[in-house]
Amino acid sequence: MELEYKTISCLEYKLYADDLRSFPLNQKVEINTINQYSYCIAEKDAEFKNALLNSEVLLPDGVGMTWASNFLNGHKIRKIAGADIHEYLLDQINEAEGSCFYLGASESTLVKIQNKIKKQYPKIRVGSYSPPFKPYFTKNDTTLMIQKVNNFKPNILFVGMTAPKQEIWSHANKKQLNVNVICSIGAVFDFYAGTVDRPSQFWINLKLEWFGRLIKEPKRMWKRYIYYGGVFLFKILKIKILKRN
Description:
This protein is of the alpha/beta class. The strands form two sheets. It has a six-stranded parallel beta sheet, with helices on both faces. It has a two-stranded antiparallel sheet with strand order 1-2. α7 links the parallel β7 and β8. α1 crosses α11. The longest helix is centred in the C-terminal third of the chain and has 27 residues.
């Protein structure tokens, strides 16, 4: 399958570096996002890394990745957050009077999402399913999840089961899912439902959305942004030094 859009190679990955209007919607496309945290986790998890490497679309969802692209290769790309691609896709399928399906999160969160979709995007047919909350899905769990999606026949499937579980699951079951676009967007489910507040536009404009999340949830986010931020910086500096020698 040939997809026509611009990418930039960075840290083994091909990052999406085009306008969202160039986004392919009428072909089988698996969308994932990558940031400094997921990059570090993927270095220790071969299955997760394989899912990211084999995404048709891999969005640079973090200033760490955009900085690394510029620092290592001189390629300037812009951050595209999961919330950005979610909004864009909803706009597109509302215009086309299409459908989407939300797989993941709690039932109460999914109800809030569906109610909001009906108000903001009245032309969209929306479905959802809350899978069991567990570290690993059984074969029966996965079979039921696929049936729920395929019976609804959505144009777009949004998957929100946290990384790396959502990316691994989506990639492993891509061929069995009867949808065009599979988009793993994790925290966006909670942001859109309003169960977790996304940092304000003030922090987003300053390219410090990560800092806004750290302030709101320090106990949960410190390791992701402080510890893995340090690990990521060390890895990038090491790569830069090796390239010079």
